[in-house]
Design a protein that fits this description.
The complex is a heterodimer.
Chain A (H helix, E strand, L loop, with lengths): L2 H7 L3 H22 L3 H17 L8 H22 L5 H8 L13 H12 L3 H11 L5 H8 L3 H21 L1 H4 L1
Helix pairs in contact in A: 1-2, 2-3, 2-4, 3-4, 7-9, 8-9
Chain B lengths: L7 H4 L7 H11 L3 H18 L9 H11 L15 H11 L3 H10 L2 H13 E5 L1 E2 L6 E7 L5 E6 L5 E7 L2 E7 L6 E6 L5 E8 L2 E7 L3
Antiparallel strand pairs in B: 1-3, 2-9, 3-4, 4-7, 5-6, 5-8, 8-9
Classes of the chains: A mainly alpha, B alpha+beta.
């Protein structure tokens, strides 16, 4: 059994502390990608981590799955904050998150992982790759993407969904190559 | 259960759904294994996408805040969001709390399909009344799945904050405070292991308990 996961699910403070020690930079990076303001981004990381930690019954799985779950929660918390709150700096935040981002190339961090990810993205059909990268790296909503690409909203949802599923297959097929 | 998530399973970890849709997804995957698997797979893909984002170091204040939030706060445990559909919970509560004529009326109003639904629900869960443990007990019932996958505790006129403690094969679990409105308090959980018994405490004193039979 994984001590971190066990402690986290059992709501022991050590579980939260271990998760934070391991993934704080990653999670904060996810929040900062959506929110320019450091304090608001920290609020999102805090609120998402504490919410999940206090409700461990929502999670079952291993360490990697916990990491992926926390990433998704921080992402939802961050974009939810922007959508939800009529903050006075919402316009500024939106301007930041809508800053031009390449629809193909994600920012380079880990060269090996990024190369593997880019290769997998490169094998997606163009329209699926464009929709997915605009959504994730461009922080655009499906409504905004549909408008930008001038295609129906349902088509964009389908393209993103199919892109995610195909990307999963592509990444899984290169899992052994990485290690 | 509502229909499966479909494309929302992939849109959820990308942050593309609004708050209501996010809650719908979280409610659904708590009850649907197939969709939970699909969302977990989508989350792993989203994690791969996130790994390419620049990482950033938060201020030390964030770690201090988290440590503070993780400190035990007796009697102030945060209420967990119920994932039980309110209508179903209310219907089950009416049926099993034995509210006299209201229950009778409800039964009379049930159509054939509804009776079939209730019969099906009956076949999948048990219920038990909690036994009083003090001079000032609380009337409470527990509904629980026969496979141990969920447990729903509901108390009538709790008379203060109620704290639930559970026993399992491996030890004691603090289930936290039953969120309530004053008239009722309830808590739905999806425990990782089968719960054998539940004790409700008010101000540190046992007020009701029940043993669950599977």
């Amino acid at each position: 059994m994984d001590e971190l996961v066990d402690d986290f699910v059992a709501r022991r403070p050590s579980g939260l502390e271990q998760a934070y020690a391991l993934w704080s930079r990653l999670l904060f990076g996810v929040a900062r990608h959506a929110i320019a303001d450091r304090g608001s981004a920290e609020d999102c990381v805090h609120d998402a981590l504490v919410r999940v930690w206090r409700s461990p019954n929502r999670f079952t799985g291993n360490r990697e799955m916990l990491k992926a779950y926390l990433i998704a929660c921080v992402r939802n918390e961050s974009l939810g904050m922007i959508r939800r709150e009529g903050r006075r700096d919402a316009r500024e935040l939106k301007a930041v998150r809508l800053a031009p981002v390449s629809s193909i190339d994600p920012p380079v961090v880990d060269p090996v992982e990024t190369q593997r990810l880019q290769a997998a993205l490169g094998r997606l059909p163009d329209e699926q790759r464009t929709a997915l990268t605009l959504a994730y790296y461009g922080n655009k909503t499906h409504v905004e993407i549909a408008r930008e690409l001038d295609v129906p909203l349902g088509t964009i949802k389908s393209r993103i969904s199919m892109a995610m599923r195909k990307l999963q297959t592509e990444l899984a097929s290169t899992e052994g190559v990485r290690s | 259960m509502t229909e499966h998530l479909g494309e929302n399973a992939e849109l959820y970890p990308l942050g593309l759904l609004d708050d209501d849709a996010v809650h719908d997804v979280e409610r659904h995957i708590a009850l649907c294994f197939a969709c939970a698997e699909r969302v977990a797979q989508a989350q792993s893909v989203a994690a791969a996408l996130a790994a390419a984002l620049p990482q950033a170091t938060p201020s030390p204040a964030l770690e201090r805040r988290l440590r503070e939030s993780a400190r035990p706060q007796p009697g102030a445990a945060k209420a967990r969001a119920s994932i039980f559909p309110f209508g179903l919970a209310a219907a089950i509560a009416l049926i099993f709390l034995g509210l006299g004529w209201q229950t009778l009326v409800l039964h009379q109003q049930l159509k054939a399909d509804d009776v079939a639904l209730v019969t099906m629900v009956h076949s999948h869960f048990n219920h038990v009344s909690m036994a009083p443990e003090s001079a000032n007990p609380v009337a409470a019932k527990i509904l629980y799945a026969r496979d141990g996958s969920w447990i729903y505790i509901i108390a009538d006129k709790p008379g203060g904050s109620l704290h639930a403690i559970a026993e399992t094969a491996t030890g004691t679990i603090d289930l936290g405070v039953l969120p309530g409105t004053g008239e009722t308090a309830s808590l739905l959980l999806h425990p990782r292991e089968r719960i054998r018994s539940v004790t409700l405490q008010r101000a540190g004193t046992d007020v009701a308990s029940a043993r669950l039979m599977y």
